[in-house]
Structure formats: structure tokens, C-alpha cells
């Protein structure tokens, strides 16, 4: 490196003296009792910093011999770097048991970094069970959170460290988990680790523990449940585990069913519906007269029939205030007084990019209703489609008594019971009749066959 041309002779002399001090301090560090300090104020600061850096480097690179030579400089093992880490933090992350044991003699196992992360918290990143056990044996507290509120148990659950999780579960208090505002179930679900979820559920963690408001603020969708994390990841196995353990599927501001439908995954949709997901949810920004779920199933008959089988409110789709009259109000000039209006099904399904599927969709819907009335706008679109003659045949003829009885029984059961199929097990009815009531003949997903004409 070139020397700065602005340096004076006195500056150069001072640099030479300083370099001598550094070299001498390094030599004297290994000589117990020996001490040369020609410039005490400069030497103490430079010596400590240099030895600290050497210790961190030796720990990071696993140089045990170098660390043994430095172990007599106790001050270097107590000083923190720019992160607030002491060498024991670094050793815990590296996971070298020999180095860890060498450092323990003069280290504080409760040291915390600038972000309040304990040595145990940093060790949990690697999930090394031997390291975590050693830290606990030396008095590390697993119930001290990082500034974000996360505990070591959250970190190992999120990273899928099953053995480390087994060690931390019995030593982590429920009070510490409650104070953190989040459950390890959230972490395991977010990380996509069903084995960790299963372990936590077997240990008694509540599947319906919701994120506290101060944690929810970190998510734009204000999610609350561990189930939402699993569903948003498209993690079918984790979602099923949580549902089987009693997770309630309707607790989040944005419904889990809405997320599953948006993903277009019939496995997730089916699992949620089987455990009571509300098929008639309304999106928070919904502008339609009919329940929101239908939006995501317009072109997928398997998903569509799932929704209809579980009690989707089809009547609202045919509920149009205009009837046979014009949909264009008198005096309409191309604008509306309302920014958000209650859009009808007939207005949605007759837009140019959906109009060609309108008759196919309505034909499917007729399997789940009695006689319905088509408004002028919907009828005009249906008349253009090849399914129109079949639709007319159904509409112009009386429905079978068997079909009407099914509709009546479903109405009496109510949508809440239809959303909870376990209720059917308490009815003293033949299985064949139960299947008929639940539209099992149209359960294409469970039958493993493609949708289409019977």
C-alpha cells in the first residue's frame, strides 16, 4: 500500500513506534508475568482489540491450537464485536464442541448480543443437539427472547431441527411462549416442518393459539393462526395435522379457504371443507352480492362442486333486483354514485371473458337448487350457449320428489351442519341416504375421477 504523501516525518516516527508497541504486546501476551508497556494508553486498547479479533478468527475457522495459545488473554474472551457477540456466541454457531468447552472456562453463558440474542438462541440456528445440551448444562436459559420476541424453541421449530426441539420443549415455559406472542406451532408451520408440528402437538401445544396483535402487525394480511401459515405455504400435510388436532379454519381475517382456492389446490380445499371451513365467506374487500368463494372456482368443476356440496348459498347467485327489466337504470350516464357497489352474479358471469362458460356453470348449479328465475341479462347470455336446451328442459319440468326431498333435508340441517360432516355420523340414517344428502355422487375429488357429464 502506498504511503500518504501528506504524512510528516513526525507522523512516520509515531507510526513506527506504534507498530513496535503492537508487535511487543503480541509477544508479551504469551509470557505470564511479562509486560512491556512503553505507551500504556495506546497499548491497552490496541492489544485487547487485536486479541479479540484473533479469538473470533480462531473460533470461526476452528483453529484449536491458536485458541489454546490465546486462552490466557481472558479479556479478549469477554469483549464483544460490532454485533454485540462475545466469542461464545460465535462458538455456539460454529458448533465445535472442543472449542466450546475451551471457551466456557471464562465465558458468561448468559451474554446477549445487541439484538438481545442469547448464546443459546444463536446455537439454535444450527440445531446441533450436543451444543444445545452443553449450553443448557452450563446454565443457559431457554426462556430469554430476542428483541423480536423469538425464543430458541421458535428458531429450531422454524428450521426443522427435530432433535433440538425435543430438547427444548421440556425446558421452555408456557409463560415465556405466551409473552412472546407466538407459538412454536406458528414457526414450524411457517417453516414447513410437519414432523416438528407433530412433536409440538403431542407435547400439548394449543393449535388455536393466535398471534398477538403486536406480532400480527408484521404481516400485511394480519394472519393469526398456525393453520394460515401452513395453507399459505401450500403445505397439505401440515394443514391436515393442524386440522386433525382441532385447528379452527375460520379465525383469520383472510380466510384459509380463500387462500387455498386462490392456490387452486383441491387437496387443501377438501381438507378445509371437511373440517368446517365457511364456504360462504365474504372477502373483506368483496364487492359482489354472492359469496366470494365462487370467484376461484368458475372454471374448475371439481372445486366448484366441492363448494356446492358443502352448502354454498346458490340462491344469492340468482337473486337479481332487475328481474326481467333492463339492467341499465333510467337516466344512467356511465357513472355511479357509489365507488363500491353490490355486484350481481349475472353481471360478473356475462362479462366478455366469462360469458362463454356461463351456461356450463349454470347447468351445474341447477343440480343443487329447485326452480330458479333468470334475469334478463343472464338469460340473454345463456341463450347463446349449447347448454341452453338442457337448461330449458330442467327449468320447464317439475323436479323429482327425490331431489326436492334432498334439498329440504339440507335446508333443515342448515349450512353450519353441512360444513361439519361429522354431524352426519350422529344421524340414524342409512349410509346411502347420508351420501345422497351430501351429494357424494358429485364428489369428483374423493372419487378420483375427472369432472364431466355422468
UniProtKB/TrEMBL annotation:
What processes does the entry annotate via GO biological process terms? Answer: intracellular signal transduction
Pfam families per the UniProt record, alphabetical: Ank, Ank_2, SOCS_box
Family matches, as Gene3D superfamilies = Ankyrin repeat-containing domain, SOCS box
Q: Which SUPFAM superfamilies match?
A: Ankyrin repeat, SOCS box-like
**Sorted UniProt keywords:** ANK repeat, Repeat
Pathway in which this enzyme or protein is active: Protein modification; protein ubiquitination
SOCS box domain location, by residue? Answer: 395-443
Q: Where are the transmembrane segments?
A: none
List the InterPro entries.
Answer: Ankyrin_rpt, Ankyrin_rpt-contain_sf, Dendritic_Spine_Reg/Scaffold, SOCS_box, SOCS_box-like_dom_sf
Query: Which ranges does the UniProt record give for the ANK repeats?
Result: 115-147, 180-212
Keyword Repeat in the entry? The reply is yes
Q: What is this protein called?
A: SOCS box domain-containing protein
What is the source species?
Answer: Synaphobranchus kaupii (Kaup's arrowtooth eel)
Amino acid at each position: 500500500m502506498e504511503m500518504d504523501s501528506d504524512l510528516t516525518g513526525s507522523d512516520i516516527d509515531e507510526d513506527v513506534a506504534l507498530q513496535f508497541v503492537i508487535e511487543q504486546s503480541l509477544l508479551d501476551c504469551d509470557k505470564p508475568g511479562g509486560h512491556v508497556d512503553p505507551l500504556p494508553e495506546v497499548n491497552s486498547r490496541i492489544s485487547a482489540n487485536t486479541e479479540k479479533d484473533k479469538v473470533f478468527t480462531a473460533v470461526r475457522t476452528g483453529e484449536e491450537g491458536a485458541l489454546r495459545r490465546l486462552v490466557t488473554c481472558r479479556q479478549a474472551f469477554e469483549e464483544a464485536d460490532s454485533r454485540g457477540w462475545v466469542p461464545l456466541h460465535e462458538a455456539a454457531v460454529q458448533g465445535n464442541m472442543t472449542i466450546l468447552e475451551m471457551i466456557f472456562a471464562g465465558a458468561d453463558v448468559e451474554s446477549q448480543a445487541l439484538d438481545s440474542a442469547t448464546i443459546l438462541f444463536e446455537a439454535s440456528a444450527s440445531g446441533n443437539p450436543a451444543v444445545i445440551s452443553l449450553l443448557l448444562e452450563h446454565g443457559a436459559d431457554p426462556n430469554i427472547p430476542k428483541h423480536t420476541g423469538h425464543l430458541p424453541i421458535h428458531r429450531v421449530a422454524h428450521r426443522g431441527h427435530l432433535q433440538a426441539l425435543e430438547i427444548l420443549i421440556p425446558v421452555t415455559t408456557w409463560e415465556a411462549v405466551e409473552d412472546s406472542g407466538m407459538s412454536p406451532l406458528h414457526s414450524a408451520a411457517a417453516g414447513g416442518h410437519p414432523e416438528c408440528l407433530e412433536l409440538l402437538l403431542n407435547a400439548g401445544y394449543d393449535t388455536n393459539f393466535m398471534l398477538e396483535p403486536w406480532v400480527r402487525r408484521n404481516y400485511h394480511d394480519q394472519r393469526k393462526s398456525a393453520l394460515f401459515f401452513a395453507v399459505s405455504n401450500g403445505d397439505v400435510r401440515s394443514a391436515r395435522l393442524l386440522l386433525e388436532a382441532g385447528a379452527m379454519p375460520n379465525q383469520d381475517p383472510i380466510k384459509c379457504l380463500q387462500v387455498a382456492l386462490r392456490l387452486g389446490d383441491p387437496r387443501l380445499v377438501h381438507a378445509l371443507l371437511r373440517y368446517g371451513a365457511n364456504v360462504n365467506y365474504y372477502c373483506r374487500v368483496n364487492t359482489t352480492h354472492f359469496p366470494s368463494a365462487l370467484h376461484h372456482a368458475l372454471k374448475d368443476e371439481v372445486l366448484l362442486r366441492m363448494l356446492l356440496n358443502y352448502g354454498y348459498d346458490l340462491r344469492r347467485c340468482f337473486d337479481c333486483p332487475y328481474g326481467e327489466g333492463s339492467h341499465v337504470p333510467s337516466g344512467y350516464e356511465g357513472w355511479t354514485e357509489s365507488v363500491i357497489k353490490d355486484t350481481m352474479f349475472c353481471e360478473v358471469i356475462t362479462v366478455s371473458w366469462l360469458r362463454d362458460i356461463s351456461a356450463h356453470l349454470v347447468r351445474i348449479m341447477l343440480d343443487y337448487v329447485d326452480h330458479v328465475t333468470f334475469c334478463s341479462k343472464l338469460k340473454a347470455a345463456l341463450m347463446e350457449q349449447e347448454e341452453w336446451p338442457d337448461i330449458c328442459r330442467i327449468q320447464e319440468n317439475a323436479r323429482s320428489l327425490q331431489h326436492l326431498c334432498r334439498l329440504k333435508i339440507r335446508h333443515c340441517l342448515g349450512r353450519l351442519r353441512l360444513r361439519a360432516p361429522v354431524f352426519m355420523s350422529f344421524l340414524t340414517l342409512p349410509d346411502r341416504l347420508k351420501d345422497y344428502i351430501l351429494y357424494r355422487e358429485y364428489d369428483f375429488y374423493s372419487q378420483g375421477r375427472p369432472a364431466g357429464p355422468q
